[in-house]
Specification:
The chain has 293 residues and is α/β, with parallel strands linked by helices. A hairpin with a 3-residue loop joins β12 and β13. The two termini are 29 Å apart.
Length: 293
């Protein structure tokens, strides 16, 4: 499966929520990274056929997005806010949603137990949805998104409100499903996508800032990340002059990591190997400076 997106644009009146997005997505885990309001949810809703683009072209293995009768059976979608039926059991919810999707009963009997086992909810199949934890509800959301055995799974901010253990379990689950299908997952948390995805697209204010591998995203900050140790009374001046990535206070001084175009004059700077998050922050820094990306 291959998704081709060319010059995608989505406008509400004069406001362009997405502007000239072009990229290619193939099998495996694909990350969509950006701040809140970057356009990630709009982009996913368009791919899910829930919104129509204003301009541009999208094809799924050559099938145009407009051919919804052929496209929708290919897609499973888990939105950021997923409404469930609190007084139904887990199994009743799956059966109800399967019936709504017109999945034959004989297929339901085989597929629902298998999916609930895959997402580790089979032992909780009789539990009411309202009694599930946040992570269990997200796993149920993934199970319902896979009911029609889609070739493309689209998941919007899947780990919101989950603790670190549940987040790790959730991404491991998505990784299993991505072996033979496209899994597109959005987040504003760099570490989540770095651990799960080999490729990523970065959106900001509806613009595509980057599309490529995680390693190359990190490389955008090569030669620009420094670690300094400075007296606490110099911290305000450094924050004014440089883009701060992190800081760690000590009794008499502060250790900070910064982005800088030139070697800083203060703090005995040490050049650092950039991380993916450093590369992402460098893109945002360039954007703020008005430089071409």
């Amino acid at each position: 499966m291959r998704i081709e997106i060319t010059a995608l644009k989505k406008c509400y009146g004069d406001n362009a929520v997405l502007n000239d997005i072009s990229l290619t997505i193939g099998n495996g885990m694909y990350g969509l990274l950006g701040r809140n309001g970057a356009g990630k949810t709009t982009f996913m809703r368009i791919l899910s056929t829930l919104l129509k683009p204003s301009e541009g072209k999208i094809t799924f293995d050559g099938i145009p997005l407009e051919d919804t009768k052929r496209i929708r059976p290919l897609i499973g979608y888990l939105p950021q806010e997923f409404s469930l039926y609190p007084d139904m059991s887990v199994r009743e919810t799956m059966r109800y949603l399967a019936a709504m999707s017109k999945i034959p009963v004989e297929i339901q009997r085989e597929r629902i137990p298998k999916l609930l086992q895959q997402v580790n909810l089979w032992e909780s199949r009789k539990r009411k949805v309202r009694k599930l934890s946040g992570g269990m509800k997200r796993r149920l959301g993934i199970a319902q998104a896979l009911l029609n055995n889609p070739e493309i799974l689209i998941v919007d901010e899947p780990t919101a409100h989950l603790d670190p253990e549940e987040r790790l379990r959730f991404y491991n689950l998505l990784d299993e499903f991505s072996s033979d299908r496209i899994v597109i997952v959005s987040s504003h948390i760099v570490a989540d996508l770095e651990a799960a995805c080999a490729n990523v697209a970065v959106l900001d204010a509806g613009r595509l800032l980057y599309a490529g591998t995680m390693d190359k995203l990190a490389e955008t900050a090569r030669g620009k990340v420094y670690e300094l140790r400075i007296p606490k009374n110099e911290l305000a001046a450094v924050k004014r002059d440089y883009y701060i990535l992190s800081s760690q206070g000590h009794l008499s001084d502060t250790k900070i990591r910064i982005l800088a175009d030139h070697v800083p004059a203060a703090g005995c700077p040490a050049l650092c190997v950039p991380t993916v998050e450093d590369g992402y922050m460098e893109l945002l820094r360039l954007l703020e400076k008005g430089e071409k990306i």
